[in-house]
Design brief:
209 residues, alpha+beta, four-stranded mixed β-sheet, two-stranded antiparallel ribbon, 6 helices, 8 strands, globular, catalytic activity, amino-acid biosynthesis
């Protein structure tokens, strides 16, 4: 990492290395947290990851979507109020079903209340059937959270050409919702759940001075 920074013209003293983020004991058994390289500036690292901001909750759990092992593969992040939302999407004409779904949602809404992410299957190159899977999962989660479907965003990572294991995902949603927490552990579990071949999970929160 430091060699990369040197090639970019940044001196090593311009970066501070922080301790790894805290994650739940269960999650850390699968993927350790990455060390954090934070550039010098008018900010500081704070605990919490995605749950650092007031009103955000997160959870991660194993739902049976991965091909092997029992590493967490479902993550959920929610906000107590409408959160301003935007997306940066691929320009590839063969966009995955969750990408198309999120683009359609953000075309009609500038806010969201929940993001559901699964690992194991990317749900890419799966046609209309894959898109309908996304719609069904979004509707199911919206009902559990008492939200409108357009307030829920869906993301998938994993093997291309495979639809999500919909039944496993749907069966896991009630438990996933009960695990939502505003703690550092909740954020850490969600960060682990979205990894695929990653050797570490990546999560950081900063506060501006």
């Amino acid at each position: 990492m430091l060699q990369i920074l040197d090639r970019l013209g940044s001196s090593r003293r311009d970066f501070r290395v922080f301790d790894v983020s805290s994650v739940s004991a269960e999650a850390s058994n699968y993927v350790p947290a990455a060390p954090i390289f934070l550039p010098e500036g008018p900010w500081k690292q704070i605990p919490g990851g995605v749950t650092a901001a007031k009103g955000f909750k997160a959870a991660g759990m194993y739902g049976g979507l991965r091909a092997k092992g029992e590493k967490p593969d479902l993550a959920l992040v929610t906000c107590d109020v409408d959160a301003v939302s935007a997306g940066a999407f691929t320009t590839n004409v063969v966009a995955a079903a969750p990408v198309l779904y999120c683009k359609n949602v953000l075309d009609i809404s500038t806010t969201a209340r929940a993001v559901l992410i699964n690992a194991g299957q990317a749900n890419a190159a799966t046609g209309n059937a894959g898109y309908q899977d996304v719609v069904e999962c979004s509707n199911a989660l919206a009902k559990l959270l008492q939200l409108k479907p357009e307030e829920v965003l869906i993301e998938s990572t994993g093997v291309i050409g495979h639809r999500i294991k919909k039944e496993a995902l749907l069966n896991s949603l009630p438990k996933l919702v009960t695990l939502l927490s505003s703690t550092v552990q909740g954020a850490g579990s969600a960060a682990v759940a979205i990894t695929t071949t990653d050797l570490v999970s990546k999560s950081v929160a900063i506060e501006s001075e």
